[in-house]
Specification:
It is a single chain. With 77 residues, this protein is mainly alpha-helical. It has a single domain, classed as Alpha Horseshoe (Serine Threonine Protein Phosphatase 5, Tetratricopeptide repeat), CATH 1.25.40. It contains 5 helices and no strands. The longest helix has 14 residues.
């Protein structure tokens, strides 16, 4: 699936929880995006969770989730 195809999906049913989360975030529904990964404990979900909290400006919470994902966030991207 290309990025354009991903963006054009009408419904995200067949996507993984992590991709659903990013899809909802891309559609402007942060709360639903967060709900998709909030109860999951795997590293991929933690990474998406970290991104969502960084996006909302909750740096402390984002750092916690980056740690859970085994990642380090840098604003030098």
């Amino acid at each position: 699936m290309t990025l354009d195809e991903f963006k054009e999906l009408a419904q995200p049913e067949r996507l993984s929880a992590q991709l659903k989360s990013l899809w909802y975030d891309g559609k402007g529904n942060w709360a639903r995006a967060h709900a998709e990964v909030d109860q999951l404990s795997d590293k991929s979900s933690a990474w998406v969770h970290a991104y969502l909290h960084r996006k909302e400006g909750d740096v402390w919470n984002a750092d916690y989730w980056y740690s859970k994902a085994g990642k380090v966030w840098s604003n030098n991207f």
